[in-house]
Prior knowledge:
homodimer; alpha+beta; Arc Repressor Mutant, subunit A; 3 strands; elongated; disordered N terminus; DNA-binding
Amino acid sequence: xxxxxxRYEEIYVAKNKAELLQGTLDMLILxxxxxxELHGYGIIQRIRQLSDExxxxxxxxxxxxxxxxxxxxxxxxxxxxxDTGREAKFYKLTRAGRKQLETEEAGWDRLVxxxxxxxxxx
Amino acid sequence: xxxxxxRYEEIYVAKNKAELLQGTLDMLILxxxxxxELHGYGIIQRIRQLSDExxxxxxxxxxxxxxxxxxxxxxxxxxxxxDTGREAKFYKLTRAGRKQLETEEAGWDRLVxxxxxxxxxx
DNA sequence: AGCTATGCTTTGACAATCTAGGTATCGGCT
DNA sequence: AGCCGATACCTAGATTGTCAAAGCATAGCT
Lengths: 122, 122
């Protein structure tokens, strides 16, 4: 009994998505960039594709996050034109960014483990 | 080379902890209560203990969260005196709370899976 | 000409957590 | 008796990150 009103459809779809938790976005962005230089819009697509459509990063989340991340020196940015002839801002992981990715992945693993411990309690 | 100044000790300890991500606290509280009725302070201890000291819920996080959760009907509360003769507010999972716990666990699993997919990309 | 997808940006709202304070009782130690 | 740490609850304010919702611009397709 899926509702047909388009507004409800969106809600329905949204419920299929895993909501992002605060703190996970940076890791995802860094991970996406670890696979190669990319522009903002492409990062969104890459994350969505890699996660089998389970994760959808909003533009309003991504761009501020990219700005934060750049300020911290984890990525460097440059404007360039790509194949299609369109201009875009390309981001690249710095060495510090690669290190940060490791740190965040370790933190994530620790959290997942800790929560698993709590959950397996009977 | 662990610093000895007590303020720094705390910081040191804090860095060993997995930081809580927004959205996980409710699940942890509900899970803790699924093991049996408990009061606020006890919930903190139970979560810390079950997670092998990896998770430390702050009081300033817990009590507002408990209030939220109670408002949503996921727990019921009553004041009582426990063994030690001290008064405390005991929380109990409601049926809706048990359902909510399942929902949140499923959501958590979905998120962990989705992030794992992104992370395993080469 | 209009629509969709691409691409970047900004604003404001919102929600959750943490820091830091407050109150009070209890037991153990000196 | 006095002190202190642990227990137990509560609240205010700051911070942070995400999202919703706009706006702007271009390319390609119909």
